[in-house]
Design brief:
Structural class of chain A: mainly beta
Order of helices and strands of chain B: EEEEEEEEEEE
Oligomer: heterodimer
Radius of gyration of chain A: 13 Å
Structural class of chain B: mainly beta
Shape of chain B: globular
Largest sheet of chain B: 7 strands, mixed
Radius of gyration of chain B: 13 Å
Order of helices and strands of chain A: EEEEEEEEEEE
Shape of chain A: globular
Distance between the termini of chain A: 40 Å
């Protein structure tokens, strides 16, 4: 099956800093989503981005499907950005199931 | 904004007992899923459900697991005889263009 690798596994920032999280995948994808898992365990949708670039406030994402990677940018980080960021892909087939990476644990210190 | 609702949020059960986890998906979704996340690990696919039947299941989804959509709205995951290793966060999800996840049920088997 498709492999999803995320880097870095852990990231510690001071409030106000910028960061880039990376997701590499081993095969072509129909769907790529970024999620934020908050301290209560909820998976919050950030972006649906199988290709191209999107922006939502301080967050933006870019997927280069031909090179099999996606990047999540967080600018002017806040303590509430802390948590685990997951990339998940669906490689096609009839069921559209998602395969998750292991995530990046982001800690933003005040 | 429509959302996926899961109950209960937490459940503690004795080893060997049966548990039923419940989900109300978003009404216009056609594909439904259960995923599992063992503490500190990535989110793993368990089963997909389409047109009132299982469309795909993972190796984790053995004979002790079952899913139902008994009344066209609720979607349930039953674990017949729980084991210690079933302790995890269980997520229900539905898919339109993108996947949306419920807030999860944290299952603890003691």
């Amino acid at each position: 099956g498709i492999q999803v690798e995320q880097s870095p596994p852990d990231l510690i920032l001071q409030e106000g800093a910028n960061s880039t999280l990376r997701c590499n995948f081993s095969d072509s994808v129909n769907n790529l989503q970024w999620f934020h898992q908050n301290p209560w365990g909820q998976l919050i949708n950030l972006f649906y981005i199988p290709s191209g670039t999107k922006q939502n406030g301080r967050l933006s994402a870019t997927t280069v499907a031909t090179e099999r990677y996606s990047l999540l940018y967080i600018s002017s980080s806040q303590t509430t950005d802390s948590g685990v960021y997951f990339c998940a892909v669906d490689s096609g087939g009839s069921n559209y199931k998602l395969t998750f990476g292991k995530g990046t644990l982001l800690t933003v210190n005040p | 904004e429509p959302e996926v609702t899961q109950t209960p949020s937490h459940q503690v059960t004795q080893m060997g007992q049966e548990v039923i986890l419940r989900c109300v998906p978003i009404s216009n979704h056609l594909y439904f899923y259960w995923y599992r996340q063992i503490l500190g690990q990535k989110v793993e696919f368990l089963v997909s459900f389409y047109n009132n039947e299982i469309s795909e299941k993972s190796e984790i989804f053995d004979d002790q697991f079952s899913v139902e959509r008994p009344d066209g709205s609720n979607f349930t995951l039953k674990i017949r005889s729980t084991k210690l290793e079933d302790s995890a966060m269980y997520f229900c999800a539905g898919r339109g263009i993108e996947a949306f996840f419920g807030q999860g049920t944290r299952l603890t088997v003691v």
